[in-house]
């Protein structure tokens, strides 16, 4: 089943939020989801430990460069979707995970630093494609955007991505309190208490449209999985 990885070589780009929104939206549709939490901050693992749960989601936090490709491939055999939240850097775990991904999502905020971090991942994908000898489908999602105003910095990022002919989701992830509060209360958006969290309705609409675009791109063609492309003795 589809393996969807979230990567940006700069931390704080909104990877974890984007990954968790997709996971909870997919699980809400009755699908089985395995999340690999490869971010050192372990925010998704901490979310998973909260009392309020999202049925259908399993989180794996014990990951190593040597094991991650096999772990992902085995999880894909028993889960409807595998989602990988990667570290905000370029390392062996990131490279190995990208090499077995059916779709790589690169979250980018409206800043030049985020754009440069995203560009590093896109360059890495091109290198990996030569090694694994197949295309690695990828796209960009704009994150933490303002629903009412497009800033000058965001416009510059959009122009840069357009000039590079990069696939960008039509639905950005808007800055919403409800998205942040998932990490406080646990579970998915549908279970948030509207008396405690504002804008849940708009957040759910945003998340649903975003997830639909990702899932449309994640349709897979069966192919051989590549194990530990960059495996080396530790």
TrEMBL record:
| Superkingdom of origin organism | Bacteria
- Give the InterPro entries listed for this entry: DNA_Partitioning_ATPase, P-loop_NTPase, VirC1
SUPFAM superfamilies hit by this protein: P-loop containing nucleoside triphosphate hydrolases
Look up the coiled coil feature and give its residue ranges: none
Q: What is this protein called?
A: ParA-like protein
**Organism of origin:** Roseibium aggregatum
């Amino acid at each position: 089943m589809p393996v969807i990885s979230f990567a940006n070589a700069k931390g704080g780009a909104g990877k974890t939020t984007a990954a968790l929104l997709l996971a909870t939206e997919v699980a809400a549709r009755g699908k089985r989801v395995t999340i690999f939490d490869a971010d050192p901050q372990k925010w998704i693992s901490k979310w998973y430990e909260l009392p309020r749960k999202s049925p259908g989601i399993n989180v794996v936090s014990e990951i190593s460069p040597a094991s991650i490709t096999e772990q992902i491939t085995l999880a894909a055999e028993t889960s409807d979707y595998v989602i990988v939240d990667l570290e905000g850097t370029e390392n062996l775990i990131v490279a190995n995970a990208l090499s077995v991904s059916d779709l790589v999502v690169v979250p980018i905020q409206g800043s030049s630093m985020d754009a440069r971090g995203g560009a590093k991942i896109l360059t890495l994908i091109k290198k990996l494609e030569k090694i694994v000898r197949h295309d690695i489908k990828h796209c960009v999602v704009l994150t933490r955007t303002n629903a009412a105003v497009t800033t000058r910095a965001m416009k510059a990022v959009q122009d840069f991505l357009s000039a590079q002919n990069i696939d960008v989701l039509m639905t950005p992830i808007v800055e919403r309190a409800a998205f942040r509060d998932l990490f406080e209360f646990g579970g998915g958006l549908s279970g948030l208490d509207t008396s405690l969290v504002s804008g849940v309705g708009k957040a759910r609409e945003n998340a649903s449209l975003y997830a639909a675009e990702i899932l449309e791109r994640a349709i897979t063609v069966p192919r051989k999985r590549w194990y530990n492309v960059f495996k080396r003795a530790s």
